[in-house]
């Protein structure tokens, strides 16, 4: 069984979720055999390729066509299907993301493959191919059997350790024909809802709650977020009250985030808010109430007044 991993990039940088996917594929190959090949599309920074070998890739293929930079879904699906067949793969591994979902759905049809999303664990191979996936925003897990010959596994972000002990691999440049039809629908321009980093993709999120008392106090949240190159989020009441735009609302009924670091400031930690943040790798909570439920989900907690702590924290970060 050969395994192909689809690599996502953002402005030329390989996403850490894709390194997780490669590490997952490498662990899968140790268990079941099969070479791990990876495919990167569009412009990718030279210095980033080494990480793929370290994460366990044994062959690296790159199609450097600039038209692939903007995540043209049909074109990506077309390329992946071609390379999948060329490397004689039976499993495709990719990161669960907006682009990953769109590409995976198309490939499931093209390759007649069983698709399982939100995968968190390596498959059980003694009884067929049975893989663990997360459901109900991470509250429960189910084992899903994939009886098809071809399989697509979309790996949930922040669930896999990234390997760094693999060996260097030479990148093989591919020149493959791209029919014009795969560019039938293309993105001609992108506009963010506001100037800041997008929440669902952010590596760090700084989020504020109702305890901040009003929109006039968001300057310190923005300062902290800017000092960390972080996206800004908020709790539901904050956006309901119109203190912050709705697209910043994090939680069960808002945006689900999966950053490396989530900083929650003056947010109580209601279950509906936690449902949107529990995929975060590390959670820091700042709250003046030591009994606030958020502390139970926190890796680090600071009990105190946000109006004192946040400016000091920002100053310390800027001084680094
Ligand atoms: P509060 O509960 O008012 O908490 C404010 C916190 O700030 C308190 O813990 C307080 O101790 C602290 N605080 C006050 N002053 C300071 C200070 N100076 N310094 C430090 N800490 C301070 N909520 C979401 O966020 N996202 C959702 O997606 C969502 N979906 C929902 C769906 C449903 C169906 C329902 C019923 C509710 C949903 N909610 C959601 C609302 C949720 O139940 C909570 O009401 C909400 O998350 C509370 O927001 P909060 O923590 O900002 O405010």
UniProtKB/TrEMBL annotation:
Keywords: Electron transport, Transport
Keyword hit for Lipoprotein: no
Record domain Electron transfer flavoprotein alpha/beta-subunit N-terminal: where: 3-187
InterPro entries in alphabetical order: DHS-like_NAD/FAD-binding_dom, ETF_a/b_N, ETF_a/FixB, ETF_asu_C, Rossmann-like_a/b/a_fold
Pfam family, one: ETF
SMART domains: ETF (SM00893)
Family, similarity comment: Belongs to the ETF alpha-subunit/FixB family.
Protein name from the UniProt record: Electron transfer flavoprotein subunit alpha/FixB family protein
Source organism (scientific name): Cyclobacterium plantarum
């Amino acid at each position: 069984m050969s395994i192909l991993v689809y690599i996502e990039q953002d402005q030329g940088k390989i996403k850490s979720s894709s390194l997780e996917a490669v590490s997952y594929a490498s662990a899968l190959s140790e268990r079941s055999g099969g070479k791990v090949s990876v495919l990167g599309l569009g412009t990718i920074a030279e210095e980033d390729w080494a990480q793929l070998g370290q994460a366990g890739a044994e062959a690296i293929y790159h199609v450097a066509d600039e038209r692939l930079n903007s995540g043209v879904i049909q074109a990506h699906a077309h390329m992946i299907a071609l390379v999948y067949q060329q490397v004689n793969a039976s499993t495709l591994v990719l990161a669960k993301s907006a682009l990953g979902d769109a590409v995976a759905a198309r490939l499931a049809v093209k390759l007649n493959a069983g698709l399982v999303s939100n995968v968190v664990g390596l498959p059980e191979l003694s009884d067929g191919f049975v893989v663990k996936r997360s459901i109900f925003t991470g509250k429960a897990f189910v084992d899903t059997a994939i009886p098809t010959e071809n399989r697509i596994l979309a790996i949930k972000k922040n669930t896999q350790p990234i390997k760094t002990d693999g060996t260097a691999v030479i990148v093989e440049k591919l020149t493959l024909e791209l029919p014009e039809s795969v560019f039938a629908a293309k993105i001609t321009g992108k506009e963010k809802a506001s100037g800041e980093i997008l929440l669902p993709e952010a590596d760090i999120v700084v989020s504020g709650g109702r305890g901040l008392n009003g929109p006039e106090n968001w300057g310190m949240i923005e300062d902290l977020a800017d000092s960390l190159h972080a996206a800004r989020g908020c709790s539901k009441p904050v956006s309901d009250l119109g203190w912050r735009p709705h697209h910043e609302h994090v939680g069960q009924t808002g945006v689900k985030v999966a950053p490396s670091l989530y900083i929650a400031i003056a947010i109580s930690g209601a279950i509906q808010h936690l449902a949107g943040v529990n995929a975060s790798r590390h959670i820091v909570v700042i709250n003046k109430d030591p009994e606030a439920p958020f502390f139970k989900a926190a890796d680090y907690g600071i009990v105190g007044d946000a109006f004192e702590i946040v400016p000091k924290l920002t100053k310390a970060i800027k001084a680094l």
